[in-house]
Design a protein that fits this description.
This protein has one domain (9-395): Cytochrome P450 (Cytochrome p450). 48% of the residues lie in helices and 8% in strands. It has helices spanning 17-27, 47-54, 78-81, 91-100, 105-109, 112-126, 134-139, 141-151, 158-169, 176-199, 205-214, 221-252, 254-262, 267-277, 310-314, 348-365, and strands at residues 30-34, 40-44, 59-60, 131-133, 288-289, 293-295, 298-300, 306-308, 370-371, 393-395. Strands 1-2-8 form a three-stranded mixed sheet, covered by helices on one side. Strands 4-10-9 form a three-stranded antiparallel sheet. The protein is globular. The N and C termini lie far apart (52 Å).
Length: 396
């Protein structure tokens, strides 16, 4: 049976997500909660159920399958809405095939040296000792630089882009107009960028996608624009959270940090455990059943909103023993932090590489890196979707 009561069972989710998830996992496989937009949704928290649901073709990402009045997400104009996060096959398959070529392990590996150079440059700017908010000066700046380099976004627009993204990730309920303004600004910016790239193509991903689009019917103009938006937005946001959460987890677990410093070859495996332990997203993108579906022992009606908790699944002790313990020695493979199935994160190889390099450069540079605040005073973004820090004050 689904757990329902007058009080939202996930009411304290923002304040203490992992404790709430533990309680929800223990009491029922699926819970009726107030979703990210305040409307009712079904929350799935157990590893096996979440993993199966992520691969279930009956759970659609296409908002047109939502019941009228049921789901009210971020309203984007059509030119930004035709993206992979709102699509099912066959459109999803066709577009993903084009994008995946940019993120093959081989192509991503070619970015290793430039990413390391960017990381070193950012750390040079901090000087040999002092204090800083590591999110602003490093964890956010590195991914925005990398993704903008990849797409070919000029330097002078990168700060704007970051401020628009922040508004969309964590909308301020006091300023409903701000989201609309950010979307309009981003649309205008991308429209002009595509015009510029058509005039003067360069060796970047956006020029490649335009070439594909202009060669035939492979991408509509809206799909091209939406794709540029998604790669910029998701490619930046998830990696910021992953790097920030990684540094925090290591600083809060000095024995694990010491083990990693002693054997830097463990970094790639460490990134997997970091993603499992405190990944960049609490929830996968919402789904809508095409027909009544059974998850756990609960039947969810067609068209209602289903939220799959990646982070609750990753802390499920039935899949990862002693799951609340941060342990760089564990086998964290099979975690769901970057999704599973056909909607698995396209940019996962890049996010992994950036996090690995960001940590490597940081730990080499600053042997005495330390938190400049009490662990419980660390402030998280007030977002049910993304799991990331507002700031990470450190001394070095």
């Amino acid at each position: 049976m689904a757990h329902t009561s007058n009080q939202d069972p996930a009411a304290d989710l923002l304040a203490d997500p992992y404790a709430v998830y533990e309680r929800l996992r223990d009491t029922a496989p699926v819970h009726r909660i107030a979703g990210t937009d305040g409307r009712p949704a079904w929350l799935v928290t157990r590893y096996e159920d979440v993993r199966e649901a992520l691969g279930n073709p009956l759970l659609s990402l296409d908002k047109s399958h939502a019941l009228p009045g049921n789901y009210k997400g971020l309203s984007l104009p059509p030119a930004l809405d035709a993206n992979l996060l709102n699509m099912d096959p066959p459109d999803h398959t066709r577009i993903r095939r084009l994008v995946v070529r940019a993120f093959t392990p081989r192509r991503v590996e070619q970015l290793r040296v430039p990413i390391r150079q960017t990381a070193d440059r950012l750390l040079d700017a901090l000087g040999p000792h002092g204090s800083t908010d590591l999110i602003t000066t490093y964890a956010a700046t590195l991914p925005i630089t990398v993704i903008c380099d990849l797409l070919g976004v000029p330097d002078e627009h990168r700060r704007d882009f970051r401020s628009w993204t922040d508004v969309l990730v964590t909308p301020d309920p006091e300023k409903p107009q701000a989201v609309k303004e950010a979307v309009v600004a981003m649309l205008g910016f991308l429209t002009q960028l595509l015009v510029d790239k058509r005039k003067e193509p360069a060796d970047d991903l956006l020029s490649d996608l335009i070439a594909v689009r202009d060669e035939g019917d492979r991408l509509t103009e809206d799909e091209l624009m939406s794709l540029a938006f998604l790669i910029l937005f998701a490619g930046y946001e998830n990696t910021v959270q992953l790097i920030g959460n990684a540094v925090l987890a290591l600083l809060q677990h000095p024995e694990q940090l010491a083990a990693l410093r002693a054997d830097p070859a463990r970094l790639p495996a460490a990134v997997e455990e970091i993603a499992r332990y405190d990944g960049p997203a609490l929830l996968a993108i919402r789904r809508f059943p095409l027909e009544d579906v059974t998850i756990g022992d609960v039947t969810v009606p067609a068209g209602e909103t289903v939220l799959l908790s990646l982070s609750a699944a990753n802390r499920d002790p039935h899949r990862f023993p002693d799951a609340d313990r941060f342990d760089l020695g564990r086998d964290a493979s099979g975690h769901l932090a970057l999704g599973h199935g056909i909607h698995y994160c396209v940019g996962a190889p890049l996010a992994r590489l950036e996090t690995e390099i960001a940590l490597s450069a940081l730990l080499e540079r600053f042997p005495d890196l330390a938190l400049a605040t009490e662990p419980h005073d660390v402030r998280w973004r007030p977002s049910l979707r993304s799991r990331g820090l507002l700031a990470l004050p450190v001394t070095y």
